[in-house]
Amino acid sequence: MVVVGAGPAGLCMTRRLAETDARFTVLERNADVGGIWDIDAPGSPMYESAHFISSKTLSGFPDLPMPEDYPDYPNHRQILAYIRSYADRFDLRSHIQFDTGVVHAALDQDGSWQLELTDGRRVRARYLVCANGVTWEPNVISWPGRFDGEIRHSVTYRDASEFAGKRVLVVGAGNSGVDIACDAAFAADQAFLSVRRGYHFIPKHIFGTPADVFAHNGPKLPHWLEVRAFGVMLRLMNGDLTRLGLPKPDHRVFESHPLMNTQILHYLGHGDCIAKPDIASFDGPEVLFVDGSRERIDLVITATGYHHASPYLDEGVLEMRNGRPDLYLGMFARNHPNLAVLGFIEFASAAYANYAAMAELIVADATAANGSTVQRRFADLKANHHPDLKGSHHYVNSERHANYVDVDAYLRTIAQVKAQVQDGVGLSMAAEPRRGAVGSILRHRSVAGR
């Protein structure tokens, strides 16, 4: 068995496998563990001002809380140190081959995977787990016209000093996009933020408490009431965002990935950053926007996301739906019984504890004996089980949310599947709708968008 990647997801997988008698190897192309949180790793999307967007209190790995002396929202260097301490605590490096990337992985005639490695070796695996992460392959977009300035994807951005003396336009209002716009607001001659739709901005602290802790400790209300109450609270705290030039949100709070950043509202309110609509075209030194306005811009940073890709797999190996891999439970390839993916699913949840639960299910599939009851049950579920992982809730119709799941419904379904394959108990064919949207979304806030 081979696991590709030793970031947080790969480490969760490594720990679960190490608890079994399975023979496995973890391949990591970089020199140490940490994934995207290692700012010095080639291709890392990390930048100096990056911090976790869920609190230390609720975001750690199982059995290893984040250090008490960490701030509420640790910076990227603290997160990297924490991830590496997890690898040390459970002796995970002994299972990992570092400086070893995968060039190509393909199915052999006997159904096993043959992997071609960067050092020229070829290895064979009965089961393959792709845990290489989703923020390595930038989604590059373009606009008509000629631009005299510089255009870069946010994956290339590292430090606010890059903005000195420039008029900077950041395109995209994900969590990384607004972080970078905040950097530009104080470091550039003038900053602009181009957004296509309105968003709900959630403060990192509510009444002096990290937002996820506040939600975790608060009362559990029916979903409809929580959404309404939290929407009212945000309007009271943030006011009418259209006064800052931002579009009015076209969806209710929690129907899209929420933005854990209200610092950008400060900069917009002071004119250090100016909100603009979508780009229409370029015209030499200027950018023309869809509302007819134009601005002279020196540098465009496109924070336009990443492709969910395992570039070592041939096109078509992972079936796609709306630009995202179409996987059973966001983990298992339905068309290949010995292929799993960990870390590609989209949910508003602190990821590490969820990765551990997901890894446990992958291990059950990967270590099932040929022809066993467990293997047959997994095969049946992959072919026929189509649960409602969204918890019957509506999300924005976009590629980002195509495979977005409700974390409570998702974890409940995983528990059902685990019981089914191991114990043979009955399985509901659809996850039940959850209660407690605010508590779920803020309690389990993810690092997606990093």
List keywords for this structure.
alpha/beta, globular, 2 domains, 5-stranded parallel β-sheet, 19% strand, disordered C terminus, 450 residues, FAD/NAD(P)-binding domain, 10 helices, 27% helix
Overview of this protein structure:
This protein folds into two domains: 2-137 and 307-443, FAD/NAD(P)-binding domain, CATH 3.50.50.60; 139-305, FAD/NAD(P)-binding domain (3-Layer(bba) Sandwich), CATH 3.50.50.60. Helix content is 27%, strand content 19%. The protein has ten helices and 27 strands. The chain has helices at 8-18, 76-89, 175-187, 211-217, 223-238, 263-270, 351-366, 373-384, 407-423, 437-443; strands spanning 2-4, 25-27, 96-97, 102-107, 113-117, 122-125, 128-130, 137-138, 145-147, 150-153, 167-171, 190-194, 205-206, 209-210, 273-276, 279-284, 286-289, 294-296, 299-302, 306-307, 320-321, 324-325, 327-328, 332-333, 339-341, 346-347, 404-405. It has a five-stranded parallel β-sheet, covered by helices on one side. Strand 21 and strand 22 form a beta hairpin. Helix 7 (351-366) runs parallel beside helix 9 (407-423). The chain is globular and about 65 Å long. Residues 428-450 have low confidence and may be disordered.
Architecture of the largest domain, according to CATH? 3-Layer(bba) Sandwich
Which of globular, elongated, flat, extended, rod-shaped describes the shape?
globular
Proportion of residues in β-strands: 15-25%
Q: Give the low-confidence spans.
A: 428-450
What is the tally of helical segments?
A: 10
Strand arrangement in the largest pleated sheet: 3-2-1-7-25
Q: How many E-type strands?
A: 27
CATH superfamily of the largest domain: FAD/NAD(P)-binding domain
Number of domains: 2
CATH class of the largest domain: Alpha Beta
Structural class computed from helices and strand pairing: alpha/beta
- Describe the sheet with the most strands: 5 strands, parallel
